Amino acid sequence: AAPFIDAMANADLIKGFIDGSFRPNALVTRAQFAALLMATFPATGNDQRRFKAFRDIPSNFWARKVIYQAQAQGFLAGFPDGSFRPNDPMRRAQALVALINGLRFGQGQASELLVYDARAQIPTYAVEEIAMAARRSIVVNHPDIARLRPMESITRAETTALVHQCLVNLGRMQPPNSPFIVRPRVAS
Fold first, then answer.
1. pLDDT in tens, 56-96
2. What's the pLDDT score for residue 42?
3. How many CB atoms lie within 10 A of CB 111?
4. Distance CA 129, CA 97 (A)
5. Residue 167's closest CA among 21, 40, 63?
6. Residue 163 and residue 53: Cα distance in Å, rounded?
7. Distances in Å between the alpha carbon of 81 and those of 1, 26, 78, 163?
8. Cα(177)–Cα(8) distance, integer angstroms
9. Rounded distance, CA 82 to CA 172, Å?
10. What is the DSSP string of the chain?
11. How far apart are the first and last CA of the chain?
């Protein structure tokens, strides 16, 4: 993930810790993910969606503002029980759905998922968004590019790589030379 992390750090879009480390293998919580999204894709002010209050986000929660901004921009939603679960680890499928929806990249088709070995593990709610992520070469998988692992918790390195690839799609970053970027493949 070094090329992605270096590019994002050089663009001042990600920060390390006070001790100078980045901790690439540390898991990302849903609140931390919202903070990264809003640092990278700040609110434009044009989105007038109504936000839904989450019962588990107190008024003094450190990430309250960015969680509601990410919700208003269409990146993140809560759960059917009215919670957001800010301290839960973000799942890889959730991260991809959030990025594709928030950036309004559209929806793909299930046939675009042929690049992944375990397509059946992709949750129903995420199929079209993950297909679009495959089409746009947003997914970065290490060490096996065909192994999506949609229900695993996402790390700081993985999150940085996905966000970087979204910025490539928006023309804000140059594509890195990485063998771990998933390239689209459809049925013939």
1. 999 999 999 999 999 999 999 999 999 999 999 999 999 99
2. 84
3. 10
4. 5
5. 40
6. 26
7. 35, 28, 8, 28
8. 15
9. 35
10. -HHHHHHHHHTT-----TTS---TTSB-BHHHHHHHHHHHS---S---PPP---TT--TT-TTHHHHHHHHHTTS----TTS---TTSBPBHHHHHHHHHHHTT-----GGGGGG-TTGGGS-GGGHHHHHHHHHTT--B-SS-TT---TTSBPBHHHHHHHHHHHHHHTTSSPPP--TTBPPP----
11. 32
98-114: per-residue pLDDT in tens?
999 999 999 888 888 87
The CA dihedral of 144, 101, 153, 121, to the nearest 10 degrees, is -60
- Neighbouring CB atoms inside 10 A of 94's CB total 23
Site of tokens 């079209």: 128
127-135 and 92-102 helices, crossing angle to 10°? 70
